[in-house]
What we know:
Elements lengths: L1 H18 L8 E3 L3 E4 L4 E9 L3 E5 L4 E4 L2 E2 L2 E11 L7 E9 L5 E8 L5 E2 L2 H12 L7 E3 L3 E2 L14 E10 L2 E2 L4 E4 L4 E7 L4 E4 L4 E2 L3 E4 L2 E7 L3 E3 L5 E4 L2 E4 L2 E3 L2 E2 L3 E6 L6 E4 L2 E5 L4 E3 L2 E2 L3 E9 L3 E4 L2 E5 L3 E3 L2 E2 L3 E8 L3 E4 L2 E4 L3 E2 L2 E2 L3 E5 L9 E2 L2 E4 L2 E4 L4 E4 L2 E2 L3 E5 L1 E2 L3 E3 L2 E4 L2 E3 L2 E4 L2 E4 L2 E2 L3 E5 L15 E4 L2 E3 L4 E2 L2 E2 L3 E5 L14 E4 L2 E3 L10 E2 L2 E2 L3 E15 L2 E3 L10 E3 L2 E2 L3 E12 L7 E3 L2 E2 L3 E3 L7 E3 L2 E4 L4 E2 L2 E2 L3 E3 L14 E2 ...
Parallel strand pairs: 2-9, 10-11, 11-13, 12-13, 13-16, 14-17, 15-19, 16-20, 17-21, 18-22, 19-23, 20-24, 20-25, 21-26, 22-27, 23-28, 24-29, 25-30, 26-31, 27-32, 28-33, 29-34, 30-35, 31-36, 32-37, 33-38, 34-39, 35-40, 36-41, 37-43, 38-44, 40-46, 41-47, 42-48, 43-51, 44-52, 45-53, 46-54, 47-55, 51-56, ...
Antiparallel strand pairs: 1-3, 3-7, 4-6, 4-8, 5-7, 8-9, 49-50, 85-86
Amino acid sequence: MKKTLTIFAILCAGAFASCTKPLAPASIELDETSREADFAGEEFTIAVRANRAWEATTDASWLSLRHTAEEALDARTYILVTVTPNSDEARTGTINIAAKEGGASAVFTVTQSENSHVIRTADKFVSFLSASAASEGANDYRLGADIDLSGVNLPVVENFIYTFDGQGHSIKNWTSNAPLFKSIAASGAVRNLTLDASCRLVMAGDEKFGFIAGENAGTIENVKNEAAISVGSLTKGWKGAICGENTGTLNNCSNSGAISYSGPAATDGSAYIGGVAGRSTGEGAVAQKCSNSGAIDVRIDGKASQSIYVAGVSGAANSGAKTLECANSGAVSVRVGSITTNGQAAGIVCYSGGEITDCSNSGAVSFLSESAEGKADGSVKGVGVAGIACYSGWADGTMSGCSNSGAVTLRAGYTLAQQTVGSATKYSSNVAGIVGHAFKCSIVDCHNTGTVHSEFRNIDNSESVYNTTARQSTGGVVSSSWGAITGCTNKGKVEVIWITASHNATLAKNFVGQVGGISGGDYHSDQQSSSIENCTNEGEVSVTCDSSQSNNAFGGIVGWPGKENAAGLNEIKDCVNRGAVTLDGYSKSRIGGISGGAVKATGCKNYGAVTLKGGLANCSVGGIIGFNNFFSMDACESRGAVSTEIKLAGAETSAAGGIGALVGALGNTAQTYTGCKVDCALTAPEGSAASMLIGVIGQNKAVTTKLELGTAAAPLKVKGSFNGTALSASNFETYIRRSDFSLVNNNITFNVQYGD
Length: 756
């Protein structure tokens, strides 16, 4: 029985073994093994049938896979493949599907055609422009190589509504007097493109002209011009290397090509020329991080009767347009025989009605009105020259963070008085390191290190027009202010030469000027809104002036500080001057280490020498203020040498013609001087109206006004020397008032101590 069971078991085992099929070899089958994908990208599936578990991978970064693994199934499974758009040449990628066991695999090949919107030839570039002109373009056209346009005529694109990317490539050998795009719409954009130095560009007479766009309402970004540009005619309108008129965005655009014009002036209106743009205009317009390094040279034959505005970045920025983080390093020069209306040259923008922030200029800027090289004999009217802006009319705004290191120069023979520029109704000559005329605009944290030079050598010319309301202005930071000036510095020399042809003061009776290391002054404003605080001047202020009938005002910080009556609100506070202040020539002027004219002064210090080398006997020279009236002084320090080479013959009946370590002359009003210190050398010819405090005290004319020179609580403290005699505790009182001073006004009190 056991034997029978054993045989049965063996038979059963054999039968079972004979019923099991052998395992088939691993296999993977695909319905398709290749696909040609569209350049614009697409999605598709790969059908996989496998008898083993599998996984899929790809070697192409532009292919992405979903459902990349599966267990063995008799039925088909699918891999979803995403192909990204192709922005360049044709390409090939592979997808590998491999069994996890058994070694089976299959390969799927994906080829993607070249992007038909990638432009590599001049013919294709022409096709792109033609399609754009017919509104049959697309938003992904781009350059795939530099384009040589030798002998190629480009179609006119009236209104570009698409985006175009140069991808860092250049247009070469383009000969043109027309823009690439006549206008760029708000939806349009041009980016990452260079016009190579091999291009030959002539700026045409269109009212709005730029080589990328005549008008831009969209975006022009990372676009450069490297080609020299000649200006065909100086017709009216707005002309720039990149764009004519911008109402959109100019971002990181630059010009390094020289821009030049030589020929007659036009007669049909104002001409604006900018290294980047003719102008930006409108609240939404912005020029940001734009720059110019190309020399801009405009030379006009004979007399011009059209207004001319030439700037490194934008000729103008109107109606709230912003100019941000822009820079100029190219020389900007305008030369004209004579001009009878407004002329301006600036490093960044000539005329601005919007925000200017964090801009810088290192290029020399000049406006020259002369009949021959170096001969200052032509006329100007309402002229401006500035490192950043000639006019800033951003009402209630603030210009901030701007700097200039370039030389700023005006040279002419005489002026034709003032005119209206923007909202400024009394715009005369304005020369400054940062801004010429600021209209209701504050200046904060701006710095100048460049030389500022204003020169008129024929102010007695018979054609000249002068009046006391058209004061010529020059300043290291701002020439004519209407707004507070805070935290600004000047280290550049401020040099003024305003003389008659024969160096005769009597021939220029009504030529009046204001000059300061920080500000010329705010005479051309409401005279009550331009306080100056925490500013420092280290640059020399050097003036040579011939004018005899009106009071000029020159100072280390400011020339004419504000309204000279009891309604005056301006204050010079915590300012420091370290630059020498020197006056020569034949003028009636007021000069001071801090201010030429009357102002409230608080916490100011002068370390610079104040020197009258030449002038009339009725000049007023002060270590702090040249002439003061109505206002008090507190905690000011006069530590620079104060001297005159001219005998100053003022008397208490004149309130002029004196020299003092604090103030040269006082008007006949109530004033208080507290906590001030004098520690300087004062030098004056024998018989001059001079003292260690006040040269001439006009209070002697009246008995009702109170003048306190020091108080018991805050006396004035005096050290130094007078005409070589060292002051001491025993003799200082001899020099704190004039030797011939007669105290007829009992309301004048002296509370003075020797030493610190």
